[in-house]
Amino acid sequence: MNTATAACVKMLGFKVVVLATIIMGVALLPASAVAQTSHVVGGNMGWVIPLGDAGAYATWASTRAFAVGDKLVFNYAAGQHDVAHSSKAAYDACNASLPIISTTMAAPATITLTAAGENYFFCTIGRHCALGQKLAINVSSASASSPSPSPTAAPAPETGAGSPTQVPVAAPTPALPRKVGAPVPSADSPSPVTAPAPSTDRAPMSYIVGDSMGWTVPPGGEAAYTTWASDKTFSVGDVLVFNFTTGRHDVAEVTKTEYGSCSSSNPISKQTTGPARITLTAPGEHFYICTFNGHCSLGQKLAINVTGAGSPAPTSGALPPSTPNLNSPSPAGSTPSENPGNFASSTSVSGLSVAILSIIVAYMI
């Protein structure tokens, strides 16, 4: 073998080694690109006192995996709640005078998880923590494919208010959430949610009130049904479907005054058999309550604004008019999409891969 041939073979071998190294690096890039996840605490319920279900936030956390770099979004009304990132001792005792990592009063609060292990959060206002407004999670050092078990939380006392139905928490799937930063209405009677102005014709829609939660005493109080209605457009001809157990709830349409005072002495109409279907026949404000003792004052009430015929189709929560399948919960009750970083990460990895491969081709030539 002459000198020129030996030099060519040596150079070719060097190029093969470099090419193999680059290919291995490109193959490993997708595995190392970890997308951050934003978790809206409590889903549609938000960050409130979970009336009737002190373990609501433990249930919510049990279906999720938390990793360093993820964000927790606490939706609440400023001045009514706050969120403290605390030690376990402060969390267990619901005592803000014990070690606290940070306290946020501005709403909504977004907290980035910076440390692996157990993380604890609670509301420091009044007895909110003792009534169940607290969250304990386990954070892994990297994104996991299955939920991490939540640390054992100290039991919170029952509120003793009625016997509300516990809401099953669905695994996170893409859906339209309550807008981050939207204030949670106060306990005072709210004005009905104003629907967008009409623009194009559409067919009548059927709405399952509360989606998978149904018509019950909501764990989040009155804000639950206000939040449910906030992203929907109601028009004359639409149908409201109230899913409830006959004998445990009912639904009455009442005046605004009776709605505010939770009075049912002179209802416009009343249905006692579930599920109840109510067709919206007139534009304007409509008010609905449950007349069972204490249910309305605990939040089982709905106020909506109905537009005339020819409103734009709602973006979520609506079904074609039909009898609902009570065994299949509506998908609109799920929590918001929690992977905003995936697209950006995939795009950057793909672009880098193309650039490297282009360099390889040019190098081999």
From TrEMBL:
Record-linked Pfam families: Cu_bind_like
Glycoprotein in keyword set: yes
Compositionally skewed regions (Polar residues) per UniProt: 332-347
Keywords (A to Z) from UniProt: Copper, Disulfide bond, Glycoprotein, Metal-binding
Residue span of region Disordered: 141-202, 309-347
Domain Phytocyanin: 37-141, 205-308
PROSITE patterns recorded: COPPER_BLUE (PS00196), PHYTOCYANIN (PS51485)
Biased amino acid composition, Low complexity: 155-201
SUPFAM superfamilies: Cupredoxins
GO molecular function: electron transfer activity; metal ion binding
A cellular component term, taken from the record's GO annotations: plasma membrane
Name listed for the protein in its UniProt record: Phytocyanin domain-containing protein
Taxonomic source organism: Kalanchoe fedtschenkoi
